[in-house]
Amino acid sequence: MVLRDGKIVFEVREEFYKGMKVTIEEAIELCRQSTIVNMVGKCIVDKAVKAGLVHPEAVLKISGVPHAQIVKI
Fold first, then answer.
1. For residues 21-55, b (16+ Cβ closer than 10 Å) or e, as one string?
2. Cβ-proximal residues to 71 (8 Å cutoff; 6+ apart), any chain
3. Contacts of 41 by beta carbon, 8 Å cutoff, 6+ apart
């Protein structure tokens, strides 16, 4: 899937984003434990914001699809 918004072209590739299927609660726990996270989609981004993992102003919408990253140093 390719998302476009002005000069932004964002390709969501299965080989990068696809992984094991988990519940949303398990995904949030994995996000808490990870040092780098890339997330795409309303459900996971909304839950990450509600969990305090992502600041709402850090969410980028590309073609209306929410995208967020977490980098812990």
1. eeeeeebbeebeeeeebebbeeebbbbbbeeebbe
2. 35, 36, 37
3. 65, 66
- The correct CATH number of 2-71 out of 3.40.930.10, 3.50.50.60, 3.30.1860.10, 3.40.50.2300 is 3.30.1860.10
Both tokens of 49, joined, read 């914001």
pLDDT in tens, 14-63: 888 888 899 999 999 999 999 999 999 999 999 999 999 999 999 999 99
Please enumerate in sequence order all residues whose Cβ is within 8 A of that of 22, keeping only pairs 6 or more positions apart, or say none.
30
CB-based contact 40:11 (threshold 8 Å): no
Q: Please state, in angstroms and rounded to a whole number, the distance separating the CA atoms of residues 13 and 49.
A: 23
Q: Are 68 and 27 in contact (CB under 8 A)?
A: no
